[in-house]
Amino acid sequence: MMSFNPVTLGLMVITTLLSVIAFGNRSLFDRWKFNPWAIKNQRQAWRFLSYGVLHADTIHLFINMIVL
């Protein structure tokens, strides 16, 4: 049986929940996605972190969770 480190499991849960929420809310996805112009010109440095929990679709999410 496979066991997960609690930190890894927490990252998986958070990433999955936020990605699924963003799948159904395009404006939220657009606010969180990596956008170099917004990072530089609008000082949105938080996008360096937020894009790490976003996935383009369910296949992308699934593969990344398997790899993690």
SSE layout and pairings?
Blueprint: H1 6-23, H2 26-32, H3 36-41, H4 47-50, H5 58-67
Helix pairs in contact: 1-2
General shape: elongated
Which value, in Å, is the CA radius of gyration?
13 Å
Counted by DSSP, the helix tally is 5
Total beta strand runs:
0
Q: Overall pLDDT, averaged?
A: 91
Secondary structural class = mainly alpha
N-to-C span: 17 Å
Give a brief outline of the structure:
By secondary structure, the chain is mainly α.
Task: Describe what this molecule looks like in 3D.
- This protein is mostly helical and 68 residues long.
- 66% of the residues lie in helices and 0% in strands.
- The radius of gyration is 13 Å and the shape is elongated.
- It starts with 5 loop residues before the first helix and ends with a helix.
- The mean pLDDT is 91.
Name a few traits of the molecule:
68 residues, mainly alpha, 5 helices, 66% helix
